[in-house]
């Protein structure tokens, strides 16, 4: 099992490295942050030496070959330095510092949403498979079908609008935007933050739950027809115990594979959530970085999502190793 | 069921369950069905019918398919003719009526920029439909090429295994790459040329899961006798794939293309919503949603309803097609 997991981790590390390099080279060749030096309203050009110094300090000099810049960036990466923010943002703050500030904000959203969504989806999927053709099954299947067919912004809007309607009717509601309130301190601040996280988590969780429950229903139905479950029933286990001890485990094995790439989609979901709930997380940073032609920032975000995918894929493999005795 | 993209319906799995369910087993409980007189409407009492007719009947028997088809047709007709007949253009400002609700003149109301929402929704629907259909087709072609080639060569010695491994790792690489970020990088650059560039762009980042499934299916088919026979006869591998392998996975391809339409529409609207998709002189459903205002629900509910109706009905059709084409599903009666 150690061998199995270490080979998988090595493959993932190589893939993440390739993906990040690919993203850096693309960003470096497609984006033109040097254009900020030549605004159309400028009356006279920036002196040559100043321009070169400005571009070199940010490793975005278009006169330096793209692979040379990539090598510079890679050298920094080895030393734990992701470069400085570029683009129209001239403040030269290290990307690592920016990410350090923003990752906790995004990560609690992604982790909470994924975990709640997964647990909910597995439970709903299993229940709908066991009680097939019941009213609950029909309702849950229809609901998950509709949610999977909706784009994330629409679901966010529905949740926000419902919150607004409740607030208009009763006077009490969750904070519509912003994860923190700078005016509050101590216990009140904590209370506000835990209230603010509810709606974004609901959005991410129902998306994860909708797709997981669909997969889980299929795998559980596969398992329900198996011989070993009938044997377990024959030796005297109750329906519930047989399902929990033998069925759930086998049904979860193929689910591990979905989980590997679920965090990536959770990142996409959290990007919309951060934009629409005004959270200053990594997703929002990604949108602004691409918007202002920030090469180092974009590469940093890609690295972050790559590592996130790597961790979740490794976790999925680990889970699979525990669940599936054939791998051990 | 070890593949994340195995998109089988719950009905197939249910069929397996019924086969092994002791209550449904005719030997343990209940009488075996009589073989002597097939009831009316049974397959054996009818003249043999063609495959097309069979599929048509199975498809139309599904109420979801009918609803989906009618809604999609209505939306297509609306997208074609509504902008021609309607009074306002998508970028025509009526600032006097900004943020007013639906009225006789502005059917879906006006957003805060004074744009008419109905005009924008219908024009946006045009672009979303074209992008959805185009991307789904292109995605299928890409997935078909990579999937069948990887599956076909995987048994051909060391080099075959190498090529297969390389293609599988390519698929994994594309799965690891955060596709939304790269789309955001490429899209504004290519949009300067034409909005149609969004079609290949979306296709490049959405073929992977289909390719994985097609590879697995091809691997099973390569072992069959008729493919072996054609190989021993010296038939060109491309001809073998086109003549013997693709027809066998065609039903899956059709289903996946249908479901790919809705996935592409969702991708495009998401991208346009954050401002990196369809750009200014054109409108998409995502750009219309961008002008949402929680205090004025009509700014987002009508376009969201149109979008939801489109995606849900395409998905309904896809699921009905799966039921019709899949011989093991529950609806495989005549």
TrEMBL record, chain A:
SUPFAM superfamilies listed in its UniProt record? MetI-like (SSF161098)
The lineage's top-level taxon is Bacteria
Gene3D superfamilies attached to this UniProt entry: MetI-like
Q: Where is the ABC transmembrane type-1 domain?
A: 103-320
Keyword terms: Cell membrane, Membrane, Transmembrane, Transmembrane helix, Transport
Work out whether the entry's keyword set contains Cell membrane: yes
Under the heading InterPro entries, the entry gives: MetI-like, MetI-like_sf
Membrane topology per the entry is: Multi-pass membrane protein
Question: Any idea where this protein resides?
Answer: Cell membrane
Q: Where are the transmembrane segments?
A: 12-31, 105-130, 142-162, 189-210, 258-279, 299-319
Q: Which family does it belong to?
A: Belongs to the binding-protein-dependent transport system permease family.
Do you know which PANTHER family this protein is assigned to?
INNER MEMBRANE ABC TRANSPORTER, OLIGOPEPTIDE TRANSPORT SYSTEM PERMEASE PROTEIN APPB
Q: What is this protein called?
A: ABC transporter permease
| Taxonomic lineage of the native organism | Bacteria, Bacillati, Actinomycetota, Actinomycetes, Micrococcales
Automatic annotation (TrEMBL), chain B:
Main subcellular localisation: membrane
Where is this protein found?
Answer: Cell membrane
Q: Which residues form the signal peptide?
A: none
Note whether Cell membrane occurs among the keywords: yes
Record keywords: Nucleotide-binding included? no
Disordered: region residues: 1-47
Topology relative to the membrane: Multi-pass membrane protein
The cross-references to SUPFAM superfamilies, in alphabetical order and at most eight, read:
MetI-like (SSF161098)
Transmembrane stretches, start-end: 65-86, 127-155, 167-189, 195-214, 253-278, 298-317
Q: Which UniProt keywords apply?
A: Cell membrane, Membrane, Transmembrane, Transmembrane helix, Transport
Residue ranges of the ABC transmembrane type-1 domain?
125-318
State the CDD domains in the record.
Answer: TM_PBP2
Tell me which family the UniProt entry assigns to this protein: Belongs to the binding-protein-dependent transport system permease family.
Q: What is this protein called?
A: ABC transporter permease
């Amino acid at each position: 099992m150690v061998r199995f997991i270490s080979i998988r981790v090595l493959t993932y590390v190589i893939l993440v490295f390739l993906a990040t390099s690919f993203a850096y080279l693309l960003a470096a060749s497609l984006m033109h942050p040097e254009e900020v030096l030549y605004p159309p309203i400028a009356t006279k050009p920036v002196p040559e030496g100043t321009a070169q110094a400005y571009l070199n300090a940010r490793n975005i000099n278009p006169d330096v070959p793209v692979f040379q810049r990539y090598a510079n960036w890679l050298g920094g990466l080895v030393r734990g330095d992701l470069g400085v923010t570029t683009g129209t943002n001239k403040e030269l703050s290290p990307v690592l510092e920016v990410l350090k500030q923003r990752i906790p904000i995004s990560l609690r959203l992604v982790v909470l949403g994924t975990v709640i969504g997964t647990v909910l989806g597995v439970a709903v999927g299993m229940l709908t498979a066991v009680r097939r053709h019941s009213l609950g099954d029909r309702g849950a299947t229809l609901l998950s079908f509709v949610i999977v067919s909706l784009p994330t912004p629409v679901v966010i809007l529905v949740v926000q609008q419902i919150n607004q309607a409740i607030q208009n009717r009763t006077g009490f509601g969750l904070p519509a935007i912003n994860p923190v309130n700078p005016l509050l301190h101590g216990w009140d601040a904590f209370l506000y933050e835990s209230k603010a996280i509810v709606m974004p988590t609901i959005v991410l969780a129902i998306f994860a739950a909708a797709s997981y429950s669909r997969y889980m229903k299929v795998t559980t139905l596969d398992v329900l027809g198996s011989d070993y479950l009938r044997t377990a029933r024959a030796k005297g286990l109750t329906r519930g115990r047989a399902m929990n001890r033998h069925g759930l485990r086998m049904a979860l094995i193929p689910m591990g594979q979905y989980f590997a790439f679920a965090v990536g989609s959770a990142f996409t979901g959290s990007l919309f959530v951060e934009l629409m709930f005004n959270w200053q997380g990594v997703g929002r940073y990604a949108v602004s970085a691409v918007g202002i032609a920030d090469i180092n920032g974009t590469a940093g975000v890609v690295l972050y999502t790559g590592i996130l995918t790597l961790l979740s894929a490794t976790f999925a493999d680990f889970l699979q190793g525990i669940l599936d005795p054939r791998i051990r | 069921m070890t593949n994340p993209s195995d998109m089988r319906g719950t009905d197939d799995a249910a069929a397996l369950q019924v086969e092994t369910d002791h209550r449904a087993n005719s030997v343990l409980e209940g009488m075996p069905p009589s073989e002597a007189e097939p009831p009316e409407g049974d397959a054996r009492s009818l003249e043999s019918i063609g495959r097309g007719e069979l599929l048509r009947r199975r498809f139309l028997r599904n109420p979801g398919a009918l609803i989906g088809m009618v809604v999609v047709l209505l939306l297509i007709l609306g997208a074609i003719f509504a902008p021609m007949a309607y009074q306002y253009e998508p970028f025509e400002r009526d600032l006097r009526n900004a943020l007013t609700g639906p009225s006789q003149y502005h059917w879906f109301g006006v957003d805060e920029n004074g744009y008419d929402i109905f005009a924008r929704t219908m024009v946006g629907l045009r672009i979303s439909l074209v992008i959805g259909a185009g991307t789904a087709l292109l995605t299928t072609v890409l997935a078909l090429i990579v999937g069948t080639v990887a599956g076909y060569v995987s048994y051909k010695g060391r080099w075959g295994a190498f090529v297969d491994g390389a293609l599988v790792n390519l698929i994994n690489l594309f799965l690891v790459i955060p596709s939304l970020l790269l789309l955001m990088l490429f899209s504004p650059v290519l949009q300067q040329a034409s909005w149609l560039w969004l079609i290949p762009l979306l296709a490049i980042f959405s073929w992977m899961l289909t390719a994985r499934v097609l590879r697995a299916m091809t691997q099973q088919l390569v072992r069959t006798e008729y493919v072996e026979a054609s190989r021993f006869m010296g038939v060109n591998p491309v001809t073998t794939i086109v003549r013997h392998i693709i027809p066998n996975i065609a039903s899956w391809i059709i289903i996946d293309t249908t479901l790919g339409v809705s996935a592409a529409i969702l991708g495009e609207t998401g991208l346009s919503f954050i401002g990196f998709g369809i750009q200014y002189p054109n409108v998409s459903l995502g750009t219309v949603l961008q002008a949402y205002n929680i205090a004025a629900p009509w700014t987002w509910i009508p376009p969201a309803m149109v979008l939801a109706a489109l995606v849900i009905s395409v998905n309904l059709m896809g699921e009905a097609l799966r039921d019709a084409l899949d011989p093991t599903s529950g609806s495989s009666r005549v």
